[in-house]
Write a structure and sequence with these properties.
Blueprint lengths: L2 E5 L3 H12 L3 E5 L3 H11 L5 E4 L14 E4 L5 H14 L5 E4 L6 H4 L9 E5 L9 E6 L5 H13 L3 E4 L9 H17 L5 H16 L4 H8 L1 H11 L11 H8 L16 H38 L3
Parallel strand pairs: 1-2, 1-4, 2-3, 4-5, 5-6, 7-8
Antiparallel strand pairs: 6-7
Bound molecules: nicotinamide-adenine-dinucleotide.
Amino acid sequence: METGIVIGAGIMGTALARHFLKCGHRIALIDPDEAARAAAAAQIGPSEEFITAPTPEALPAAWGPCHFVIEAVPERLELKRQVLGALSRQFGPDTLIASNTSGLRAADLARDMTHPERFAIAHFFNPADLIPAVELVPAPATSPQTMDLWEALLTRSGKKVARLRADLPGFVANRLQHAMARECFHLLEAGVIDAEGLDTLTRYALGVRLALIGPILQRDLNGIDTHHAIARYLYPDLAANTTPAQVLDDKCAAGMLGRKTAQGFYTWDARQERRAQRVEALLPAVIALARQIETEENDDAEMGEQARGL
Ligand SMILES: NC(=O)c1ccc[n+]([C@@H]2O[C@H](COP(=O)([O-])OP(=O)(O)OC[C@H]3O[C@@H](n4cnc5c(N)ncnc54)[C@H](O)[C@@H]3O)[C@@H](O)[C@H]2O)c1
């Protein structure tokens, strides 16, 4: 059992605490906001291996030394830099430190840290206790040993780790997500399709495959020459705007922020809310399907080794 500290008891921090507790770690969850601490504790439930505190300094001495710390405070560079700098001064160089930023650069985050070689970005996805992938991103000062240790810790906890070789804004997953979203908003604004049609088409055309086959393997299946021919005539016609779409500006200005304000691209009535809850309930089944491919591949490899007498 390792001792971990999660900084920030919001959406991500609470799910991260739940995830690492489930994996048998001892977890302290830190938040200066009493209401956030109470809400997180209520969601997680009582456990001897779990504690909350307003600051890391307020933890009882029995909670040190700590093996790893994950920062999940709001996405503001100055705040994160200050929190990470303070953590690096409080904990010795053997404590691994990570940030769960959605896309800030690791080099900027680590600027005020002592021993920045033990720091990396571990970008989890919401809900962090369910979605398997984590992007692991090095800062320029991150040591290869730190990347290995984080990868091993996350893998042991059941995560699928994607190790990046460069520190770039948005990492990989958010870059892909925004590239697709830019085209979606362009098509909505042009009146080519409505929001519901676009969501349905994406789910049934791309989504059903994407959980099982990534976009690169899919190109091999479809034929790279075909993809190349389409790319030649299609790229000049794709959205290439460098500022957010007008429809996003308008929704934000009108306070139509989605589920949290009951109005976004959809109206969040009881039916819509039930649908979102059904989707959340089905996620584990989709993840199990995605993992099944790998389990079968591992079984194949094992049978091959047995057949060769290894
Ligand atoms: N929400 C998502 O879908 C998502 C997904 C991936 C990554 N992230 C990233 O995770 C981080 C947290 O996001 P969130 O959605 O959980 O935010 P959130 O607003 O739900 O929670 C942030 C929490 O941090 C607390 N906090 C503020 N200052 C603090 C401090 N000095 N020390 C300790 N706690 C402090 C706040 O009180 C709040 O409870 C952000 O960097 C975000 O970009 C979010």
